[in-house]
Design a protein that fits this description.
The protein has helices at 2-17, 172-182, 329-338, 371-374, 399-404, 533-538; strands spanning 26-40, 43-50, 59-62, 66-73, 81-84, 110-116, 122-128, 138-144, 158-167, 191-194, 213-216, 221-228, 234-239, 244-249, 252-259, 261-264, 269-275, 282-290, 303-309, 353-364, 382-387, 390-392, 440-442, 445-448, 452-460, 469-473, 478-485, 502-503, 505-508, 512-520, 524-530, 541-546. The protein is mainly beta and 566 residues long. The chain has three domains: 26-144, Sandwich (Immunoglobulin-like), CATH 2.60.40.420; 158-338, Cupredoxins -  blue copper proteins (Immunoglobulin-like); 353-554, Cupredoxins -  blue copper proteins (Immunoglobulin-like), CATH 2.60.40. It starts with a helix and ends in a 20-residue tail after the last strand.
Length: 566
């Protein structure tokens, strides 16, 4: 059976890439969650993978296709898969975050995901959504436009997926457990990776040929589909001596923006055009850290791959890439300033629900009898994170099932619209650790009537440290109508109501704010969280509930019959 599924998806890929006619609109994939052994930097370890591939297989499809993915869990770990950026219109059951829309797929069990890419095209990705398994369980989703619909940009000679990641010698599930048990910061990655390869900066990687190479023809233009699948750090990306033109972000076309480098956070996807217009040689493609927080440990060595011209030789010196300094906030702002939707868009003007959420870190008081082991946060406290100073408590039962079946006791519907206290969030945040840096806890949700027009202000705070937070919303994309530094001020905030970018993950600026707008027209329970995995583990997340509207097209269907049980 699996060979038939793989063969069909391969034929589909050929038909899409070479523009052949295929009448089918349902695409089948067979994903087996399996352990595999790999060697990086002279050390071997077992990782969780899909179909013994690292990174995982690519899902190729077209706009409005239905996707069916049969997932069989052959590992001892619980698992789910999230289809990041897929808006899951009326298919919330298949969104994937564990204990939010489903119970995990247990060892030896199967679950079939079914969803439609309604009015979506571009680069998205999929990843595990249990514990930190997405450290190795991830892959790209490539959605081509419908047949006969031309791209608004020059067709590239070829396209290439670039998956940015992080790699640890330790088991990633153990890493999360150790970080939470210690109460302190997590262990930095042992390496960054590009398409699974650390590159020549890392031990054993050059001699073992663990370097990704992209071979290019002089004079040709290429499209890079860049995905940041990293766990706990944001990254700069650049190609030595080559400019990149951004044409898409989070699966939506943008006005062309020429850049020397870009910052891409975990959960974000960016498409760029690059022309091989330099002398024949090998050029570094580099991925290095962007670190906006203070006093944290991080991996400093960049991952390097080669943008390699045909005709170049190994004797030629690889041209080095120059990344911004690790804390170059201006480099991040410069790119964000230029990001615009390709055409004018219909931004919601009249707002029904105004929300203001603070996001940031906390330090809880130590309650352990073994503080040396369990309270390694600042001043002997325990690190945490929160939204509106409420740290999300992960449930042990699917919130969507509890909501749909009206089962009490798993969540409340009282998430506050605004922070409990108003203060100078950036410069005057509480920092008398741990006496005034603690959070409330709970599994609280915010409920929307169907069709509500929502504006949400996301405000970074300075408790422990200000930081750029990549906030991802499940089930929706949103217009980023404004952002800036300091505390949000409605009287002075500048807004773009003409052509704001349409994203599913927004990097809320370090010491700043972002304003987003969307229409709550997709019923279900939808997770919103920081895509830095440690922040989500600490509680920087919450959930929205969108009620049903009127009629079948505004009502969430019943759950599938093979839904995993808790």
């Amino acid at each position: 059976m699996s060979n038939c599924w793989i063969s069909y998806s391969y034929i589909l890929w050929l038909s899409i890439v070479f523009n052949l006619h295929v009448s089918a609109t349902t695409r089948f994939y067979d994903f087996k969650v399996q352990n595999m052994r790999i060697t990086k930097m002279c050390k071997s370890k077992q990782i969780v993978s899909i179909n013994q591939m690292f990174p995982g297989p690519v899902i190729y499809d077209q706009e409005d296709d239905q996707i069916i993915v049969k997932v069989t869990n052959e590992t001892p770990y619980n698992t789910t898969l999230h289809w990041h950026g897929v808006r899951q219109k009326l298919s919330c059951w298949y969104d994937g975050p564990s204990y939010i829309t489903q119970c995990p797929i247990l060892s030896g069990q199967k679950f079939v995901y079914k969803f439609t890419l309604e009015k979506q095209k571009g680069t998205l990705f999929w990843h595990a959504h249990v514990s930190w398994l997405r450290g190795t369980v991830y892959g790209a989703i490539v959605v081509y436009p419908k047949m006969g619909i031309p791209s608004p940009f020059r067709n590239p000679y070829k396209e290439q997926i670039i998956l940015l990641g992080e790699y640890w010698h330790k088991d990633v599930v153990q890493l999360e457990h150790e970080a939470l048990e210690s109460g302190g910061a997590p262990t930095p990655a042992d390496a960054f990776t590009i398409n699974g390869h650390p590159g020549p900066n890392y031990k054993c990687s050059s001699s073992n040929n663990d370097v990704y190479k992209m071979v290019v023809i002089p004079g040709k233009t290429y499209m890079l589909r860049i995905v940041n699948a990293a766990l706990n750090s944001e990254h700069f990306f650049t190609i030595a001596h080559h400019k990149m033109t951004i044409i898409e972000a989070d699966g939506e076309y943008t006005k062309p923006l020429v850049v020397n480098h870009l910052m891409i956070a975990p959960g974000q996807t960016i498409n760029v055009l690059v022309t091989a217009d330099q002398p024949v040689n090998r050029y570094s493609m580099a991925m290095g850290p962007y670190v906006s927080a203070k006093n944290i440990s991080f991996q400093k060595l960049p991952a390097i791959s080669y943008f390699q011209y045909t005709g170049s030789t190994r004797k030629q010196i690889v041209m080095p890439a120059h990344l911004p300094t690790v804390n170059d906030d201006l480099a991040v702002k410069t790119v964000m300033d230029g990001l615009r939707s390709l055409h004018p868009v219909m931004v919601p003007r009249k707002i029904d629900v105004n929300l203001s959420f603070t996001i940031g870190l906390n330090v809880e008081k130590c309650g352990s009898s073994n503080p040396d082991k369990n309270c390694q946060g600042p001043h002997g406290g325990v690190l945490g994170a929160s939204v509106n100073n409420i740290s999300f408590t992960s449930p042990t039962f699917s919130l969507l099932q509890a909501y749909y079946k009206d089962i009490n006791g798993h969540f409340t519907r009282d998430f506050p619209d605004t922070p409990h206290k108003v203060y100078d969030y950036v410069n005057g945040a509480p920092n008398n650790i741990p006496h005034d840096t603690q959070s409330l806890v709970g599994t609280r949700t915010k409920v929307f009537e169907f069709g509500s027009r929502v504006e949400l202000i996301l405000q970074d705070t300075g408790t422990v440290s200000t930081e750029n937070h990549p906030v991802h919303m499940h089930g929706y994309s949103f217009y980023v109508v404004g952002y800036g530094s300091g505390n949000y001020n409605p009287r002075t905030a500048k807004r773009n109501m003409v052509d704001p970018p349409y994203l599913n993950t927004i990097g809320v600026p370090v010491g700043g704010w972002a304003a987003i707008r969307f229409i709550a027209d997709n019923p279900g329970v939808w997770f919103m969280h920081c895509h830095l995995e440690i922040h989500m583990s600490w509680g920087l997340s919450m959930a929205f509930i969108v009620k049903n509207g009127k009629g079948e097209m505004q009502t969430l269907p019943p759950p599938p019959g093979d839904m995993p049980t808790c």
